[in-house]
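Job type: complex structure
Entries:
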Amino acid sequence: MEKIKNFFKTFLLYELVKGMAVTGRYFFARKITVQYPDEKTPQSPRFRGLHAQRRYASGEERCIGCKLCEAVCPALAIKIEVAEREDGTRRTTQYDIDLVKCIFCGFCEESCPVDAIVETRVFEYVGEKKGDLYYTKAMLLANGDKHEAQIAKDRAEDAKFR
Amino acid sequence: MINIEIDGKQVVTEPGSSVLDAAWKAGIHIPHFCYHKKLSIAASCRMCLVEVVKAPKPLPACATPVTEGMKVLTHSEMAIKAQKGVMEFLLINHPLDCPICDQGGECMLQDIAVGYGGSDSRYQEEKRIVMHKDVGELISTMEMSRCIQCTRCVRFGQEIAGMMELGMANRGEKAEIMSFVNSSVDSELSGNMIDLCPVGALTSKPFRYTARSWELSRYKSVSPHDGMGSNLSIHVKNNKVMRVTPSRNEAVNECWLSDKERFSYQGLNSPERLTKPMLKQDGKWLEVEWPVALEYVANGLRDITQNGGAAQLGALATPHSTLEELYLLQKLMKGIGSENVDFRLRQADFSADGKRAGAPWLGMQIDDINNLDRLLIVGSFLRKDHPLLAHRVRQAVKKGAQLNILHSVDDDLLCPVANKQVVKPDELLDQLLQILQALKVASGTTSAHSEISGAATSIAQSLAGGQRVAILLGNFAQQHPLAAQIAVVAENIASLSKASFGYLGEAANSVGGYIAKAIPGNNGLNASQMLVAPRKAYLLLNVEPELDLQDPQQAIAAVSSAAMVVALSAYKHQAQAYADVQLPISAFTETSGSFINTEGRVQSFKGSVKPLGDARPAWKVLRLLGNLMNVPGFTYDSSEAVRDELLSGTPLAERLNNHLDLPLPTQAVKAAATGLQRVAEVPIYTADALVRRSTALQKTSDAATPVVSMHGSELVKLGVASGNTVNVVQNGVAVPLKIVADDKLPAGVARVPAGHPATALLGAMFGNITVERS
């Protein structure tokens, strides 16, 4: 019985017809491909992209160098050195994130008691040379300054779930 | 014994112990803040509230004595509710600044809040703010709002340090821990308050914001400073020592550390560290590689041995060196053929050499000091020279011991002194003889035939009346020009009063130096002779001649005139002026080694960090020099091998003996008493190379520029007032110093500290000194 079934399937090109049916279905269906970079997918406010360091409205940097992000980082991508600034406050003298090591888990952001280190929606960044993706404190602060409006909006949107 | 039940467990405990102790014994943890094993009970934090069956209210476990048949519940509903309630009150005013707090990660409040704190606060009102205070250079009180008023620091000051420098002022919500108006915390044990503080109110100032507790690796080590040999925990981050805390050892330092031991680590990373071998060529210092420097030293030593004889070589080592370094240094010197090696740099009287039955030591165990009931301490700046031993003496006195003092100065020992006799340095021996005479009279072996002072009689009576008696010689007595005779008389007093007799070791290896035989061999020259008759070449092991030796004038003259000076040193110092080679050696955290403390306890330790720059452990350098000089037996591949070689054979306990084979002096020979006599202590924070470079310690009041202090009548004679600058002259060299009247000093004495750059140009630590109006 099985043999007869296979005999007819072979001669009537059953597999071919079945395969072409899939092709035909997708040919007429609605297209879902995003034409990046002309088109972009929508992003969640919780998107975890490039890191940034934030400042308060007064211009004072938020980071107090508690080193919780350094301790929690599973990829050991963060390096922090701390010293007392002239005004007696605790501040970082070095805050580096090696984006090559980073796995974008967002733990740093979650552990931060002052919302200083955040991950922004920016995901389009490149490094042309070795070391370009080693972000220092100045670069992170510059990121923060550039995207502060978006960062603040995203935090506000997510606040009710935190 | 009393039987009680804690959480269903049967516990047998001594009567009088607290519920907290009993629970601890049974392995049940009760949260607490103000309770500390070594301090009195305050019961002020209320964190240890537990339920006692049939008691109407929860009771504090730390202040509740056990009673027969007591049933305690530490985790019942009532207990947990009480503990959580207390925790909520403690957190009301505690700031939420854990992320910037140095205590974060090792904080009792943080830990206990995890178990007993609420997830949020119901408190809506304003938080209390306590302004910061300035209490000196060691303790940071920048965030006193964190204080939970446990009063551990206050009790520590009263009960352990002996001086109440912090207190709680005001009441209720206004209660604050503060020092007396405008005064800093100056106790030489003050750093322990940092450890005691269960929160981040008192933190270490030098350590402030430099590391978090979880970043630090901890290594065990031993203090290289005084003869105590305190156990240390060295905290390291990125191959750098970040701080030092005590490592608990009940037999030695208990859980305390003196400030000297705690903060000297700053010297390890000092910019003055020598990191490259250096050679002097045509008056200029060149950095060279190790082989070049060692070859140069070996050639130089060979030259001098061939031309002038090996006896032209002399070696001096600091008693803060490790056992292995001292042993290899003497082995090297004796291998080359020179017997001139010594580590007793500040000693003046060497007449006991060859007459000793063994290495001089404490004569008892350190923790037996607490149980003494009669004590005679001769010539010791006890608090500054031996801060933790002084604490043990205070504990003994607190238990009822009678402390007798014979000295040339009358410093406050922070405890009641039964009898004290303060005399000029040259009368010290005479006074001891009087005490001996008084003892003999009392025992009826002789009748009084010479004059005996009242103080000597009462000291003798005090000693004779005790069960556990000790006679201890301090640094001043050991450095005295009549040290051997003083020791003989003291030994006789000890045998008459059935006391134990011992020496308070000046430095970490004061006993070890003898065990390592770093003393002159047959016909060898001792530290003093080597300088009186200058040698052609000197090997200096971490010695700064102008600060570490009995007579700096002589020392500088000798090393300056030498043809070759090899300075093995961790630091660049004055050696640049007179040395020919500087070899960088490791500080104690960078090498393995051992110290034998004053009670004869061998304590070995491993290196905690890698040597700085090109510095190398001194035992390796000396081993290589031995190889280059073809001295046989230099094949060690570890410092342990060196230690095992020198400790093999006779057990250490049998090598320790304080007996001196010298005749008992009958009459003290008095020098012609003209002019002033110098009394020189070594200030606590300039006593060794490491503390001299600790920047925080150098800012404390104990490190202030030395002054010359004299009895008020001497000032009147001179026609100067306290605070004036005078010229202090010794052997024709004048040094300007401030003068201060101190009526506790005997007349005819000028107290001029040694071992400090300001007095480094003066002469010997004892002898005549002139003070002139400038």
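Summary: DSSP finds five helices and five strands in chain A. Chain A touches chain B at residues 64-68, 71, 82-84, 88, 90, 113-114 (CB under 8 Å).
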